Amino acid sequence: MQMKQQLFDLFQAQIRNELESAYKYLGMAAYFETTPFKGFAGWMRLQAKEETEHAMKFFDYVHDRGHHLQLPAIQAMATEYASPLEAFRETLAHEQFVTSLINEMYRVAVEVQDYAAQILLQWYITEQVEEEKQSQDFVDRLETAGGDSASLLVIDKSAGKRSS
Ligand code: FEO
Questions:
Q1: 137-152 per-position pLDDT tens digit
Q2: Between 20 and 30 A from 14 (CA), which of 23, 85, 105, 109?
């Protein structure tokens, strides 16, 4: 059964938002590739892949519900950052913004009594807790490291161990 138009509009917009997230993190990967921080570059590359998977989960779901999608334009993204800390602060702020979007989708799903959509969105709500925690951890560690190159390289190395 199709979703109410108001809810479908948010799902359709969120497919673009998740792909924009992927593009944003690909921009950060491009930045890190120009620095000694190849661990962060790899981490951002995997993050971009994960965002694409988030988009595709919504993509599949709207088709399961019988909708026909439109795909609006995706905006250009930065590939320059002042420092690893600036990139991860931007990541954290972006994930907090995405959490607010998912929460709004859930609020509307409750309002229109779409129980199936609520179940799907609960997965994203749980995922956002993890997404915010990961970026907050990097912000905290990078703030502690300050300008100390050795500490930055240790954090970069740990970021490079991410496997999925
Ligand atoms: Fe798809 Fe990082 O939220």
A1: 999 999 999 999 999 9
A2: 85
